Sequence to fold (108 residues):
Amino acid sequence: MKPRLLALVGATVMAILPLTTAQPASAATRCPQNYACSWTSANFEGTRRLQNNSSGCNPFSGRSVSNQTGRLITIYRDESCYGDRIDIRTGHYSANTPWRFKSVAVWG
Fold:
């Protein structure tokens, strides 16, 4: 009986192991607190750039973004915070923006 029970426990553990493997870091953990981060490619791939939480309009480009500034940010399709825009609340992110953004306004 013991060998059968051990085999059953072993099979159960082997079946569960693939479900408990480490997951990729989330956008929030890959972007430091008090910063907004952009990545040159979708899904947080490519070169990461940081923007501090100082208010104002700044050059900031990429295809994915994470806002950990503690403030609302707005990303813009054009330079100088002009054109199509998307608001990203603090603690939120976009893995694949509909267009490459080129500037950011940090509010507050």
